[in-house]
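Annotated sample (chain length 195).
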Amino acid sequence: MLVTTTKLQTYMLVLMVTESDISSADEHEPKLVQVSWLSQDQWWTDSKSFTKLKKHYQLADSDFKFIEKNSLSIDDPAQALLIKTIKQINEYALDERKDFDLPLDLTLGTEFQQQVWRALQKIKHGETISYATLAHRIGNPKAFRAVANANGNNPFSLVIPCHRVIASDGRLGGYTGGLDKKEYLLALEGVKCKI
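Output written by the structure step:
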């Protein structure tokens, strides 16, 4: 598992990618397994999904290799994916990109969570919906609390845009990365919400 970090404005993100697709024996293409926020005091091993990733992929700490983003090589497929991810994040920050086009390994989530994460990817740039609307979109209108929980377990903050889901009353609601980041991302997309 390769790991690097990058910044979006002043906020730090940790990116993790498989060196080959360890979730499927048929494919050998690397996939992203995590894009999540780090607070100022955190190191990448403190990321919200690190322990889950180790357990899910049956990895030890020594199976993770950190590479500074400026040392990544385009010649290595996994490192090239990290470079592509950083490039797309930078394009998003400059309002040159509305959607991310990256291979994601969703297997860390349950079947329900994966369904929610796929639905999140269909929310357009600059659009916000409520948790209830998202539950309705997946065909389970009473599951708005479970949908909110699936949002909180999204290992691909930003790339799978859970920041576009707000409370029914128009307030921001929650966000695993912190409300400051959610507000920043929505403002970047031209959305103003109640705080």
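Annotation: The mean pLDDT is 90.
Annotation: The first strand starts at residue 2 and ends at 8.
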